[in-house]
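Input/output pair, single chain:
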Amino acid sequence: MTEVNAISTLAYRDLLKFLRDMPRLVSTLVFPLIFIVALGGSLQANLGEDMGYNFLVFTFTGVLAQTLFQSAALGLISLIEDRENDFSQEIFVSPISRYSIIFGKILGESLVAVSQGVAIVIFGLLLGIPLSGPQLVGLLPVALVICLFGGAFGIIIMASLTSRRAADQIFPFILLPQFFLAGVFSPIKSLPWYLDILSRISPMRYAVDFARGIFYAGQPDYDKVVLQNPIFNLMVMAAMFFVFLVVGTFLFVRGERNR
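Output:
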C-alpha cells in the first residue's frame, strides 16, 4: 500500500501542477487543433478523393496519438526541474522503490496527456469526425497505453540530460522527425528503404498505428491506413515500455547518486 500511495501521490501532484499552469494548458491544446484543421482539412480537399479515404479522419487519429505520446514524454522534463529544486533527492531518500517513483511520474504525466486527448476528441466531434460509442470506449484504454508508452520513452531520453535547456533542445530534435516517420500526417505504407528502417525504429509509429488500428477496426478503410495488427503494435510497445522503464530508471537513479 505504501508503494501505491506513493505512485498516486506523485501522479496527483503532476496533474495538479498542469491544471494550475494556464499557459501550458492552452498551448498543449492549440497546436494539435491547428494540425487537425489546417493539415487534415487541406489534405482532404486536395488529396482525399485520390487516396480513397477521409484525410481529416486520418489526420485526427494521427494527431490524437501523437499528442498523447508527445505530451507524456515531454512531461517527464519535470524530473529535471525536480532535480534542480532538489525535490528528486528528497523523494529518492524515502523508503520507496525507485521504480515506483518513476512510474508515479509517468502515470501523472499520462493523466495530463489523457485530459488533453479528451479535449481533442471533443473538438473532433465538433468538426464532424464520425465517432461511435464503441470507438470512444475503445479509445480510452488505447489513450492510456499510448501515454504510458510515451512517458517511458521520455524517461530514457531525459535520464542522461543534466539541464532543462538541454532537454528543450534534445526533445524536439528527437520527436519532430517521428511525426513524419510515424505517419501522423501522411501515409507511410510505401517508403524508401532507408526511411522504412527509420520508421520501424520510431516508437511513435507503433503508438499511431495502434490508435488507428482500434479506431478503424471493422471499417472498409482499415487496410488502407493501418500498417500492422493492433496486437502486434501492443506487443512491440509493451517490450519497449519495459526496456525504457528499466534502463531509464537505472540511468536516472545513477545520475542522482553521482550528484
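Residues 22-51 form the longest helix (30 residues). The chain is about 80% helix and 0% strand.
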